[in-house]
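Supplementary Methods. Inverse-folding protocol.

Structures were first reduced to a discrete structure-token string of length 97. This string, shown here, constituted the complete conditioning input.
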């Protein structure tokens, strides 16, 4: 999902609005990365103890679908990096006004 178009990203499972392309950045990780969610309440953080590491997992607050992981090495202004699996997202283009 390497698009630079304006639009919104929603949950593949339930259609809940999750991220906005305004908050997308290129983390060079190959994953779609965002420095802030579109609507905070739509994303839930969980601790993930897989592989002997503690990471923050982010899931859809509405349906519980796994979205990706949250790291604290993102860009300003939040310093956060939501590293999201593109398979969990649906992209919808917004029309330029
Ligand atoms: Zn969902």
């Amino acid at each position: 999902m390497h698009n630079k178009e304006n639009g919104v990203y929603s949950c593949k499972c339930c259609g809940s609005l999750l991220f906005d392309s305004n908050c997308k950045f290129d983390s060079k990780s190959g994953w779609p990365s965002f420095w802030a969610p579109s609507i905070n309440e739509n994303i839930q953080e969980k601790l993930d103890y897989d592989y002997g590491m503690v990471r923050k997992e982010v899931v859809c607050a509405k349906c519980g679908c796994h979205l990706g992981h949250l790291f604290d090495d993102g860009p300003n202004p939040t310093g956060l990096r939501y590293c999201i699996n593109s398979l969990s997202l649906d992209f919808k283009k917004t029309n330029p006004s």
